[in-house]
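FAQ

Q: What does a record look like?
A: Structure on top, sequence underneath. For example:
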């Protein structure tokens, strides 16, 4: 790996190379770059001394983030269950009187 001054620089370069070698797609590349920019806490665990280990860790992180996003999307698409309102018998009888026309 080329010599960079910062850990973020090493990670950016690793993500770039992974994308060039088609190990990750554009969506994963963007997500990883966002995490690097935001200085996500999980990036602190990645050892940048070894390029193979760094790639493997970034792939795991990309997969974990993608799975988390999929779960959030599934949660948002879950239908809302609406329970019927329980009513007492007095209300039902009044309601039936009100709905039908009264003749005298």
């Amino acid at each position: 790996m080329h010599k960079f001054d910062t850990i973020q620089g090493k990670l950016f370069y690793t993500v770039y190379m992974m994308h060039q070698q088609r190990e990750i797609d554009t969506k994963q590349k963007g997500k990883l770059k966002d995490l690097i920019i935001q200085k996500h806490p999980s990036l602190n665990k990645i050892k940048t001394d070894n390029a193979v280990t760094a790639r493997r860790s970034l792939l795991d992180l990309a997969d974990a983030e993608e799975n988390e996003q999929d779960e959030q999307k599934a949660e948002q698409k879950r239908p809302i269950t609406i329970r019927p309102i329980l009513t007492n018998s007095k209300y039902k009888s009044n309601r039936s009187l009100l709905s039908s026309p009264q003749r005298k």
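Q: Is there anything notable about this one?
A: The chain has four helices and no strands.
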